[in-house]
Design a protein that fits this description.
single chain, mainly alpha, globular
Length: about 110
């Protein structure tokens, strides 16, 4: 069951990588790696805390909570399926707004 959530999250983030520019894509690839775990967990907790404590700030705020949860989902199995579904929903919304056809996996 945990492997199913990991697989769903990996597919969702693979789709996300197709939609973002080069530097963001490189950051996502690095953040998904095992060597980034010691940075990923504190960064995720910091983003979530900032989003809760200061939701009204323009640069950091409530929009940091989903980013923190996404980073944390690589290390917390019960977050994987909901975050995968959220990412797929966002990508579908982005593609509909841009009038782009869905990316097909082989």
């Amino acid at each position: 069951m945990a492997k199913d959530g990991k697989r769903q999250l990996d597919h969702a983030v693979d789709d996300l990588e197709h939609e973002v520019p080069g530097k963001a894509k490189r950051f996502i690839e690095w953040a998904r790696s095992d060597r980034a775990r010691w940075v990923r967990i504190p960064l995720a907790l910091t983003l979530i805390a900032v989003g809760i404590v200061a939701p009204y700030l323009p640069v950091v705020g409530v929009e940091d909570i989903p980013f923190g949860l996404l980073l944390l989902s690589y290390d917390v199995p019960f977050l994987r399926k909901p975050m995968a579904a959220f990412i797929e929903w966002l990508i579908g919304l982005w593609r509909r707004l841009r009038g782009k056809r869905p990316h097909r996996r082989s």
